[in-house]
Write a structure and sequence with these properties.
heterodimer, A: Heat Shock Protein 90, 5-stranded antiparallel beta sheet, 5 strands, globular, B: Transcription Regulator spoIIAA, 5-stranded mixed beta sheet, 13 helices, binds adenosine-5'-triphosphate, binds magnesium ion, Bact_StressResp_Reg (chain B), STAS_dom (chain B)
């Protein structure tokens, strides 16, 4: 069972500008460091957050980020949830393909972010919006590589 | 005066009082910290500024909209209050401190109003004092609002300045330039970096350009794309671009993200990148004493 860990249970942050993206990255870094994530994992989490928050801003027209500290009894983790009420993703499988972009990007944000975390889930409905949830757990071996999700 | 005509409503009494005692109020306010610190050159100027604020308050009082921050009565002094707040903000005051300074104007004017009544403790007198207190509270909010706006302006200006300051192109050697990137590389920064780098390549006739990202905390797909575009543009200008300072954690993250920097020349440190650029230009750097002892 997942429950928020003691110190910093959850934060909700607006995503409406480039400055907000920088703030989300900083908050994720702070949470990750506090929860005991190593430097490499911190960097991966911050990078995944940067990708997903930017998608929320650029493709979703803005929205919210929610950062939650987790503790399943064995290890600590971080859940990041990005929500928008934008156009949604029509073909999720296609959007998750490396290199697929509708906006002149590298098309690596979604697929890459998934590889940077342990659990990854996209909830989307055309015309309704998109919610992307990413979870990572503190791995005991510093160099161990998170699976592809 | 006021108490003779009890039928007059409190806001009207306050308005008439402000009008009649305009000069005295202005004289007292001119010595209050807020006006004294803003109008440092001439006291007359401070007094005139105070009078305008008194006039506006009187206008607001007569309209009866004592608690309306957006009421038209404040319009004539909004600019002036904004400039005052800006001056205080530039001097380092926080909006809360500025609000405190505005609150400091309340005491003197309330004192003058109470002196108007033979018995300041009658319900009517108290009602008038309350009305003026409310009005001064609204003035404080108006200033607070403009102070916050002024702060936002200041932050934006500093951000713009930072954009330029944080991207110097340094000539490291004849034909070799470098940009040490520090902080977030968003689209606006990237654009400036690219422009100043290309300019420097032309001006310095540089053959080698080094982009050092030691100070960039996050390299996501957008930052990587900006870097690759800059490298490609430098190439078009006839310069070879070297990206240095990719830290181990960032290297691992980039690879897992799926970014292919294969076409970009990279070196661990700025020093390594410089050594590469020099050797490619046939320049050899060696210790003077090492050379001497070898002979
Ligand atoms: N929140 C969202 N709302 C709507 N569409 C989205 C959202 N997130 C992603 N998409 C769609 O999925 C595509 C792939 O996203 P992905 O992040 O992988 O690439 P990108 O954003 O286009 O480029 P980049 O590599 O710079 O991130 C996007 O081009 C967009 O069409
Ligand atoms: Mg993206």
């Amino acid at each position: 069972m997942m429950r928020p860990s003691g110190q910093a249970p959850a934060t909700s942050l607006p995503i409406g500008s480039d400055a907000d993206l920088a703030w989300v990255r900083q908050q994720v870094r702070q949470y990750a460091a506090q929860l005991g994530f190593g430097l490499v994992q911190q960097t991966k989490l911050v990078t995944a957050a940067s990708e997903l928050a930017r998608n929320t801003l650029v493709h979703g027209g803005g929205g919210q980020a929610e950062i939650t500290a987790l503790d399943d009894g064995r290890s600590r983790g971080l859940r990041m949830r990005f929500t928008d009420q934008g156009p949604g993703i029509r073909d999720l499988e296609l959007a998750m393909t490396d290199g697929y972009t509708t906006g002149g990007g590298l098309g690596l944000g979604l697929s890459g972010a998934k590889r940077l975390v342990h659990e990854f889930h996209v909830d989307t409905e055309p015309g309704r919006g998109t919610t992307v949830t990413a979870v990572a757990w503190v791995t005991q071996v510093p160099s161990s590589r998170p699976g592809a999700g | 005066m006021p108490e003779q005509d009890v039928a007059e409503s409190a806001p009207q009494v306050v308005s008439a009082f402000l009008e009649q005692r305009r000069e005295q109020i202005a004289q007292r306010w001119a010595d209050a910290p807020l006006f004294r610190w803003v109008f440092t050159v001439s006291r007359d100027e401070a007094v005139e500024a105070c009078k305008l604020v008194v006039d506006a308050l009187s206008e607001v009082a007569v309209s009866g909209r004592l608690e309306d921050v957006a009421t038209a009565g404040f319009a004539p002094v909004r600019d002036q209050l904004g400039r005052m707040a800006q001056t205080r903000a530039r001097a380092g005051s926080t909006p809360a401190q500025i609000a405190g300074e505005v609150a400091g104007l309340r005491g003197p004017v309330i004192e003058l109003l109470r002196a108007e009544f033979t018995d300041p403790d009658t319900p009517h007198a108290q009602e008038c004092v309350l009305a003026l207190t409310l009005l001064m509270g609204t003035l404080r909010l108006v200033v607070m609002e403009t102070a916050l706006d002024a702060n936002a302006d200041l932050i934006e200006r500093q951000r713009q300045q930072l954009l330029e300051v944080a991207t110097p192109v340094i000539k490291l050697w004849e034909g070799t330039v470098a940009v040490p990137l520090i902080g977030t590389l968003d689209s606006a920064r990237s654009q400036i970096v690219m422009e100043s780098l290309l300019e420097a390549i032309v001006d310095q006739r540089a053959r080698y350009a080094i982009l050092d990202i030691t100070g960039v905390p996050t390299v996501d797909s957008l930052v990587a794309q900006h870097l690759m575009k800059t490298v490609a543009a430098a190439r078009l200008m006839g310069a070879e671009c070297i990206v240095s300072g990719i830290r181990p954690a960032i290297a691992q993250t980039i690879v897992q993200l799926g970014i292919d920097l294969g076409s970009v020349l990279t070196r661990a440190s700025l020093a390594d990148a410089l050594a590469y650029a020099l050797s490619r230009q046939g320049i050899e750097v060696s210790r003077a004493d090492a050379g001497a002892s070898a002979r």
